[in-house]
Amino acid sequence: WSHRPALLARAGRCDQISQGMYRARDSTPADISVCDAKGAVFFKADMDIDCDGAITERCNLAADPYFQNSTAYTQSDGQPLNAEKLPYIVVPTPSGIWNYRSSGIGGGSVAAVIYRNKVQYAVVGDAGPSGIIGEASYATARALGITPDPAGGGVPSGVTYIVFKDAKVPSLEDHDAAVRLADGGVVILQR
Length: 191
What we know:
chitosanase activity, alpha+beta, 3 helices, six-stranded mixed beta barrel, Barwin-like endoglucanases, about 30% strand
């Protein structure tokens, strides 16, 4: 994870591209901006746990009262993503605040998620509420050492999400391809 310093350096100063601010939760103030990073966008937020998609031992209606058996984007075979196994992030549904598509981002876009001393590469795999930002899959949280329980896990702050523009994997479930693309994106950001 030698790329962590370069990633954090790029996510230092915010050139705001969102037309307003997002909330971490319905009950918190809107104070999170989406920023441009020349070749990527980033935001610094909390992490809520997304367990939607494929029904698994840890991601199901019994474990998550808000569970949905679908994701905005799917695997190459048309099935919903597996939040327990696949590192992915959730972007806000397009709104007047920000439309991720206009930033060259969509399903399968590659992201780097940073928490404390760890970096986890992921893909954009789901879309959430239009006014809330800061959510990732069970697998993303677990890899970062964040409690992945969808009912009570996550962290209230300290997570940096960097999404590379125009860098998408053809099969969202191909995590190795996401890692290769992310490594290339980090090299571009260092220039």
